[in-house]
Amino acid sequence: MKIPRNKINNYADDIVSERQRFLNQQTKKEAFHLHKYSFNPEVTEGNIENFIGVAQVPVGLAGPLLVNGEHAKGEFLIPMATTEGTLVASYNRGMKLCSALGGVKTTVIEDKMNRAPIFVFKDARRAREFGKWVDDNYAQIKELSESTSSIAKLIDIEQYTASKMIWLRFNFHTGDAAGQNMVTRATREACNWILAQKPKCLEKFSLAANFDTDKKHSYINYIKTRGKRVVAEITVPKDLIKETFRVDAKTMAYQRGLSTTGSLLSGSVNNGAHSANGITAMFIACGQDVANVAESSAAIIYPEILDNGDYYFSITIPALIVATYGGGTSLPTQRECLEIMDCYGSGKVNKFAEIVAATALCGELSLSGAVLADEWVSSHESLGRNR
Q1: CA 220, 221, 223: angle at the middle one, nearest 5?
Q2: N- to C-terminal Cα separation, the chain
Q3: Pairing state between β 59-68 and 104-115
Q4: Collapsing DSSP states into helix, strand and coil, what is residue 61?
Q5: The CATH classification of domain 117-206, taken from the options 3.40.50.1820, 3.30.930.10, 3.30.565.10, 3.30.70.420
Q6: Catalytic residue check, 380
Q7: How far is the C-alpha of 15 from the C-alpha of 4, rounded, in Å?
Q8: DSSP 3-state assignment of 299?
Q9: Catalytic site residue 173?
């Protein structure tokens, strides 16, 4: 059994149809909906191999959400792709509250994508000497790494050691692309030059050895960031907390303390409720690499009851990996979803990052209120079950 392929054009209608027939013959199942789509399969080249159709994930609309960012300013309708009932309704409730209060304030704190090759030496002293050599030759390394792209710009090279090993964490600006492939190519070019200089007593080298933590979160990303470090924050008047969520600010803050303790005890990378829900729904709708949710779902929730009784609430997303150019962003429906928020193309990635962070904050407030008001289960019973 071999999946049909065409070495010249594997996305033409005839080879796609052949694969669809092959699937039906092999499984004895008619994939009627899977084989329905509205675009030319050739637009998927570079995004998928052995194309046979599309997975149609329902897209709902939440909002409007008022954002007071440095890049995202104004009201936005938010497309969310999900199969989880109540999700859009929950985020919509949070957006209604936050917009009524004058919007969510958002700030992109840091922006970098990295790759971390490893160099293994004869002993720790040789590894230390190599680290000094890298510092001395930084200008040449930077020039070579940036020669592979008109967009990638090397920010710095961090060094981390263990035993006789040294990891070099290359940090780049990658424009409006998520940039993982871009920085891999750039780092490889730099490392090829480094290897050509024949570092003394070098025993082994690998372009990656899990220190960049691609597609998985890590504590270093909490501190050093991978992607965008974004903060969303809002202050909710004490009277409106009671009116909207039927609990007071003190109860909200106390519950947050319990949740933080539970997160620490369980080893979670997020002391919030469900930021991954909103982030994933936006990622699917907007053509992001959904596996990056593994990193992007980490979050730090910080609440504070102000002297006047109002409730300050913020979410910090330390490793939000998003793009408005490249990857899946130019696919037909994904591009349309980005365009709904005016977030497609160059110069839009920080705007999109701010909108994602603001959306995550709205979902945190909404679900926290639902749990405390004992509406969590009833909401899922009425909106989230397919019987």
Answers
A1: 70
A2: 38
A3: parallel
A4: strand
A5: 3.30.70.420
A6: yes
A7: 7
A8: strand
A9: no
Distance between CA 45 and CA 240 in Å, rounded? 50
Domain with CATH 3.90.770.10 in the chain: 59-110+227-381
The residue from 110, 289, 310, 336 that is catalytic is 289
CATH topology classification for 59-110+227-381: 3.90.770
Burial tier of 381 (Cβ tally within 10 Å: 0-12, 13-18, 19+): exposed
Q: Which residue out of 84, 158, 336, 375 is catalytically annotated?
A: 84
The model's confidence at residue 240, banded by pLDDT at 50, 70 and 90, is: confident
Token pair listed for 64: 């409007």
| Sequence letter at residue 159 | Q
Is 58:34 a contact under the CB 8 Å cutoff? no
H-type alpha helices, 229-331: 238-245, 249-266, 275-285, 293-296
How far apart are the C-alpha atoms of 52 and 18, rounded to whole Å? 9
Handedness of CA 221, 296, 37, 387 (dihedral sign): positive
Place of tokens 């000497």: 129
Beta bridge partners of 231: 107, 316
- The predicted-structure confidence for 296-308, as pLDDT tens digits, reads as follows 999 999 999 999 9
What lies within 8 Å, CB to CB, of 367 at 6+ separation is 90, 273, 274, 376
pLDDT by residue (tens digit) across 142-177?
Answer: 999 999 999 999 999 999 999 999 999 999 999 999
Query: Which of 129, 158, 189, 380 does the annotation list as catalytic?
Result: 380
Q: In the beta sheet, which residues pair with residue 167?
A: 118, 160
Active site residue 33: no
DSSP letter for 270, please.
B
